[in-house]
Batch of 2 targets.
Target 1
Amino acid sequence: MIKSPLQKARSQYIPKLPQSLEESVSLITGEASESVADQKAIKDMFPHTYGLPLVTFAPGEFSENQILNVGVVLSGGQAPGGHNVISGLFDALKKLNKKNQLYGFIGGPDGLLNNSFIELDEDIVDEYRNTGGFDIIGSGRTKIEDEASYDLVIGNCLKNDINALVIVGGDDSNTNACVLAEYFKEKNVGIQVIGCPKTIDGDLKNDFIETSFGFDTACKVYSELIGNIQRDANSAKKYWHFIKLMGRSASHISLECALKTQPNIAIISEEIEKYKLTLNKIVGQIAEIVKKRANKGENFGTVLIPEGLVEFMPSIKKLIAELNDILASKPEYYLLKTNQEKRALITEALSEESAKVYSSLPDSFAKQLTFDRDPHGNVQVSKIETEKLLIDMVTDRLAKDQSFQGKFNAQNHFFGYEGRCAAPSNFDADYCYSLGYTAALLINAGKTGYMAFIKNTAQSSENWIAGGVPITMMMNLERRNGYVKPVIQKALVDLKGNPFLVFRSKRKEWASNTSYIYPGPIQYFGPGEVCDAPSETLLLEKESLLQEEPVTV
Amino acid sequence: MIKSPLQKARSQYIPKLPQSLEESVSLITGEASESVADQKAIKDMFPHTYGLPLVTFAPGEFSENQILNVGVVLSGGQAPGGHNVISGLFDALKKLNKKNQLYGFIGGPDGLLNNSFIELDEDIVDEYRNTGGFDIIGSGRTKIEDEASYDLVIGNCLKNDINALVIVGGDDSNTNACVLAEYFKEKNVGIQVIGCPKTIDGDLKNDFIETSFGFDTACKVYSELIGNIQRDANSAKKYWHFIKLMGRSASHISLECALKTQPNIAIISEEIEKYKLTLNKIVGQIAEIVKKRANKGENFGTVLIPEGLVEFMPSIKKLIAELNDILASKPEYYLLKTNQEKRALITEALSEESAKVYSSLPDSFAKQLTFDRDPHGNVQVSKIETEKLLIDMVTDRLAKDQSFQGKFNAQNHFFGYEGRCAAPSNFDADYCYSLGYTAALLINAGKTGYMAFIKNTAQSSENWIAGGVPITMMMNLERRNGYVKPVIQKALVDLKGNPFLVFRSKRKEWASNTSYIYPGPIQYFGPGEVCDAPSETLLLEKESLLQEEPVTV
């Protein structure tokens, strides 16, 4: 494998650990925990893993336990830092006992089912320290959700003498980790399960998990690009750039990038949903800002758009649901030849409200809603080019607006894959390494059904606190795909939280003025304030928290 | 203006100058020059600026001349480093004589015509050192090409006591700079004109200009993103990523990024043109590689596509020309309702050869060719989504290929605006600063009709050689828009050059294996091999040159 000069230099980086973990540690056991909601139901579903105490590690006596054979699984979409979770896990296991072994299951949860794994030895782990991607063992999206599968996993673990699993994933995968932990405990098979909080979307966080790993790096990559584009916009002075960003279930990425780059407009889906804003209303608001800037001679700007936007607009959500039904029940639609005929057939079948929305959509978007369907016959929302839709509709709106004297030319962008596998920032490199390290300590302490956590991450790493939180503590009941299930609560953008409030207090100024910030590329070797800063979201959240109450575990 | 931590840290960077420029310099005059071709005609067109000698600067006696009032113009598309050309120019002017002044014309050549400028003093220049973008004074694409305009420029310069202009631009703008220099000399108005070689596309280079500025940085940004996407492809193992890159007239960017990242496929337009490859042939070749990788279980990959590809395919070029004529002469086309009818009308009017090509195109692409037309009725080639076209056609091809057992899912990307205004790499920061510095020295030496150059740029900056090359020396006659004009020869990818040959020798291996390199983001503070390396293209070109003959001026 040929390595770039940066890869070579970066492979020498030694991630910072919380000071409390640098020597041997002892376990501090806190109070028994409760789930965030639906306590009775969650307790009934997880009799063996409910109510466990929060635990933290502090410098102390080192207690060597049995020899640990640990399997690690990367689950779901890639996030920067996954390889450092593995290197932290590896280093801690070897520090605890040289005979401890780490195995990596190949291709995500499938590896557990197929008994497909490799031994992760020093050579392999060294090759991947501080690199991006999940390519060391690959990832996958398979869900292990029936007893036959649980038993298969047990069989494979026992066959290979594996006594603990570390599952690195988002809210779904960690919920799944807890289900496995519960089942293993019920069956008394002696296999522990520890989770690690991963997702660039940033929507796996709560009182215990300050941030999910990868969010910091991905947002830094996107912000680099947004900054570059803003510099271009402000130099050429002739384009509006509509930039869609990953984040289907929540808009943390858009909010973080907005705080970092100060664009003219950033849409936050959670706000759209709360105030039931229609597409037309959003288009109108963008058009107003375009006009205002045009009046000052500034025919350029930037708009950040979260990927999941259309699903947060109640009217579009309703329209999509109706379209799914109509197209399933009217196969004659596909025989019609002209667009006009097709739209007429659909319009007739829609409710009055949805028909109105539908008639306001440009042809291209209307087609995306009716053409691209997944195997279940549903609209593939992720394929909807919201950024182009907004450009088309704003163009249309301004063309009809005789008071608009400016120019409106737009470019569209979508950033997602550019950031998911970036090499981790120092923050994510340190954070992930510490999470992996902590996961090993939790296993060594005999814990199961826990998620590794690192707190105080807005401060420098010497003050970080490491520990474990019972996964059941983060759960509530939610209806998903028609069933009520115990799941980890997704963290949407808190419209009363400091990050959003700061954004809201400034966005009017950002809209009319050109207040762009240019963050530039992630740096690894420079001054601390350039290389080590955590996300704006984290800093602002902690700022408000510090005002309310001191951070304790 | 709020600055990011990196902007603040980076503003302290002191660009490296060629050692020969660090103290006072004297001018070394070389032999009289000749143009690269059409010597007689170019000489007739440029009687006052033809045949001037190549000049270089060496340590020596400092000769103070008259007080210099210099105007600088940024022309055409943005390129990283423009601000450093200005800071180099400023610092050299002030070093020569504290009374020298620098003025920046606003919004490109328009500023010269409108007499719109600002004084660039220390405060302003300091604000923009080592930053990306052209926003210090803006840029523009206006061409100054008739005598009335030349006279307007003279009037404005004389009015403001400006005795020299520095024009920062690509081949067109520098040709224009030379036309102005010639006219000013003919009119004996005492206004000098010096050019600087700018373009991220890398197609302004020759024996004297080793590289155009901005190319290095832009390619590094694109390569960062391609590397990240490749890491994602290799982790998720489920997508082929089709990545279009800027570069309409030449494929240097695609070639450089390929050398940096080792993708599975990189298309070089110049090769397509030379071997008259059709779209179908290209699609067939991509499909073959997809199949080969699928047979090894690798249903993922990357394809780099230069923006100008379709214009290099003779058959598509011919088709586009015919379509332009047909649509201009058959307005009834626009009254037809169905796609089928439209395609039938066009097919009938096309030549047999073009009809065959047209019938092979997917609907979406056929529509782009016939719908989006510029004000002159021509297809807007830059809006053609070649990356999507190739995905559609490869999908189609594989669907019909019963021997294909793999999966083919693709994502498309286009990178352009992400890199044009990035903050310059150390190479571009140093190179641009030195170019600006040299431009001031050329003015001080009384030169006009020259382009500033820096040679030996593949070596460390202490060995760089600074000088000026007569712009006429790079000219030949070409037919452009129906007229034969003197222009600076565009440098296409040399199919016999070392960069392409190295690429060609490796691409078979890159296609079937997964040989990705992950360059990561531009670094400013780390080890030299990470921060200071010039482009692969430059290194490989110089490598072959060194084998043939030593570099001399």
Note: The radius of gyration of chain A is 25 Å.
Target 2
Amino acid sequence: MLYFIGLGLGDAKDITVKGLETIRKCSRVYLEAYTSILTVGKEALEEYYGRELILADRDMVEQEADGILKGADVSDVAFLVVGDPFGATTHSDLVLRAVKAGVQHRVIHNASIMNAVGCCGLQLYSFGETVSIVFWTDTWKPESFYDKIRKNRASGMHTLCLLDIKVKEQSLENLMRGRKIYEPPRYMSVKQAAQQLLEIVHNRREQHEELAITEDTICVGLARVGAENQKICTGTLTEMALADLGPPLHSLIITGDMHPLEIDMLRLFALDQATFHNLKLTDSSTYTS
Amino acid sequence: MLYFIGLGLGDAKDITVKGLETIRKCSRVYLEAYTSILTVGKEALEEYYGRELILADRDMVEQEADGILKGADVSDVAFLVVGDPFGATTHSDLVLRAVKAGVQHRVIHNASIMNAVGCCGLQLYSFGETVSIVFWTDTWKPESFYDKIRKNRASGMHTLCLLDIKVKEQSLENLMRGRKIYEPPRYMSVKQAAQQLLEIVHNRREQHEELAITEDTICVGLARVGAENQKICTGTLTEMALADLGPPLHSLIITGDMHPLEIDMLRLFALDQATFHNLKLTDSSTYTS
């Protein structure tokens, strides 16, 4: 049996009891290490689970899946994923390979950033398509996420923006020279994401259109959701582009229409209470009751 | 401290280690008992957690919140919710009352049906607004969920339909006579939801419009997600209206545009393989690559 086990979002103890018991009976345990991170590293997990973990990077999962599946038809293998195994990233490819190899699979679910963001008080019901915001470079500044957020807002929906993670990236020079030297991991902050979004807002100058994203659009910044030191901030896009939410992982929400109860919840996390006091005046499209 | 603790979706062991440790140190433990259920009852949870649970029905949470918050400023109180505390239902009202009463709160997340449905292979990214389908009566047959599903499909998005739960309902006669006698709980099945949806499809006769929901629209039925005996079925709306997925809870997904990898995953759960073989011919709007 191949077990896909979600680790949740905070630290080693966010695993479910069922997940922990399963890890302890498996012959091999892989840790998927390229789509998300916990606030603790591999060593802390190994110590708490009492098992050695095999780091599975993207190359291993995509190109050496046979190794992961080896023997899983007669013994138990665990594949650990931060969050939920079918949350922000699906592992459908590995499931399909398992089925093809005659290996049964089972999923042990956990919280994902896709549902845990509900803790800020916005209704999960009212989220539209989720978008990813990638790091811009000097020569590559994709804006497609902006159009998706705009489309969600046109339907009154909130947008969860998952922020870029770069692990095991090579510099252009090392890539060209074929040197397997990797840059330190980078995790996009709420501040960086808001700055990129703000740059598009300024370039497009759609500020006076009814459903546009403006400098005053209410956003929610979330950092380390589920951890003891999680941080949630709410405010305008401009405020968010100045906010420091500390270490990764960060996520950003761009609101759509809001219910008064949602506003009351967001107010608890306001960077500046005046923003919410003046909400009806500055950005009426986000406050329909 | 008031702890909101998600129990996950299956049985007693789907709680996180952190959640379990927290329950065991709290002075009072409430179990929210009106928005969802596990596959095991209150007694099994009490035995596993080693704590007495106080059932909190809607009336208690909405009208007697002071009782729940009592003493939570100086001791620890737990409020347990099936799934995630801010998943399908938010408990914002209780959070706001806690803040007003000077009681701190913390959330211990878990899987919610809102993210666990990803196990069928559809990308969570590509879901639009979530809808609720309520039990129709002879005189009340609301169709608003149909329009929301249609709107999601028009954007290529999938729709998660949460199915009605009736607990502590009174018959009209008992209600009128003021007798606090409650009907047995009822949980809508995938079959019932699909039948109601099919009735709307037949009435509206939009079958030839490009983005309409038709008898042949591909759906996913899910039952007891996260439990040992979970069941996932995929097929047309017509097939779903005949399918028996066993005991509750059930959820239904109406697909939008699908990626080939999503199709490959859904095929694993096909009620009839021929449905997926002929997919391009019968319902091209759902299969864009």
Note: The mean pLDDT of chain A is 91.
